[in-house]
Automatic annotation (TrEMBL):
<dbReference type="InterPro" id="IPR048020">
    <property type="entry name" value="Transpos_IS3"/>
</dbReference>
<dbReference type="InterPro" id="IPR001584">
    <property type="entry name" value="Integrase_cat-core"/>
</dbReference>
<dbReference type="InterPro" id="IPR025948">
    <property type="entry name" value="HTH-like_dom"/>
</dbReference>
<protein>
    <submittedName>
        <fullName>Integrase</fullName>
    </submittedName>
</protein>
<dbReference type="GO" id="GO:0003676">
    <property type="term" value="F:nucleic acid binding"/>
</dbReference>
<dbReference type="InterPro" id="IPR050900">
    <property type="entry name" value="Transposase_IS3/IS150/IS904"/>
</dbReference>
<dbReference type="InterPro" id="IPR036397">
    <property type="entry name" value="RNaseH_sf"/>
</dbReference>
<dbReference type="Pfam" id="PF13333">
    <property type="entry name" value="rve_2"/>
</dbReference>
<dbReference type="GO" id="GO:0015074">
    <property type="term" value="P:DNA integration"/>
</dbReference>
<dbReference type="Pfam" id="PF13276">
    <property type="entry name" value="HTH_21"/>
</dbReference>
<feature type="domain" description="Integrase catalytic">
    <location>
        <begin position="101"/>
        <end position="263"/>
    </location>
</feature>
<dbReference type="InterPro" id="IPR012337">
    <property type="entry name" value="RNaseH-like_sf"/>
</dbReference>
<dbReference type="Pfam" id="PF00665">
    <property type="entry name" value="rve"/>
</dbReference>
């Protein structure tokens, strides 16, 4: 080890650094929460989670804590748009106009499709999000990107929420959403279609952010060898996202907590 005898005995006499039980608990919770997020939480979000558990720590304190424990966030990368419209299909008006903050649940939903790579080939995920709470209320994953994919996501959302007629569903102008089959499905549910402008990614920015978090905070952290593993991992993330992940737009509450708080206020 190339350590002299005098240096060794000096080390033995040096008093050990003692940490308190509270500090040890803080270290353990910080590591556990960071690991649960698959190493995706920055110091601000980690601090919110710690404070929510009653662990009072400053932003600077969390920065030092993350450095001490070696908690390093992986940076995100951009990804591509997957859907294009068939020019023969009808396009709905943009009823949303970047209004991402409805005042109650089941007023405005939004959806989109993204691709997911596995060791066995591609899969495609369609989601439906309630913009009031950012909660994923319906989703479907399959190996083909078809109208059936987005239809099943919408049917799951409708069966879960049973929204009143007049709900607005916002999407891009992909062929799956502009198809006659999908427009008929929305009409049968009493849902009004809304579509963003061509090339305007900010028209569905909240859904795009969800896909970014799903991929770069979760899926890309572990090998996705099979389609079945991908399906289960997407399920795990949506559960984590709805129940655990804190949202600034929700006053630092998870989507489910935000909806439950709203119901309590109404009652």
């Amino acid at each position: 080890m190339k350590v002299s005898r005098s240096a060794y005995y000096a080390w033995l006499k040096r008093p050990a650094k003692i940490i308190t039980a509270e500090q040890l608990h803080l270290y353990r919770r910080a590591k556990a929460i960071f690991k649960q997020s698959r190493n995706s939480l920055g110091y601000r979000e980690l601090r919110k989670r710690l404070c929510k558990e009653g662990l009072n720590v400053s932003e600077y304190g969390v920065k030092k804590l993350m450095a001490k424990l070696g908690l390093v966030v992986t940076q995100r990368i951009a990804y591509k748009v997957t859907t294009k419209r068939k020019h023969s299909d009808t396009v709905a008006d943009n009823l949303l106009n970047q209004n991402f903050n409805p005042v109650a649940p089941n007023q405005i939903w939004a959806g989109d499709v993204t691709y997911l790579r596995t060791g066995e080939g591609w899969m495609y995920l369609a989601i439906v999000m309630d913009l009031y709470s950012r909660r994923i209320v319906g989703w479907h994953i399959d190996r083909r990107m078809t109208t059936d994919l987005v239809s099943k996501a919408m049917m799951k959302a409708y069966n879960l929420r049973q929204p009143p007629k007049g709900l607005v569903f916002h999407s891009d102008r992909g062929s799956q959403y502009t198809s006659k089959h999908y427009r008929k499905l929305l009409a049968n549910y009493g849902i009004r279609a809304s579509m963003g402008d061509v090339g305007a990614c900010w028209d569905n920015a909240v859904v795009e952010r969800f896909f970014g978090s799903l991929k770069h905070d979760w899926l890309l952290k572990v090998p996705q060898l099979t389609r079945e593993y991908m399906r289960n991992d997407v399920t795990a993330y949506i559960r984590y996202y709805n129940l655990e992940r804190l949202h600034t737009a929700n006053g630092d509450l998870s989507p489910v907590e935000y909806e439950q708080n709203s119901l309590r206020k109404v009652s």
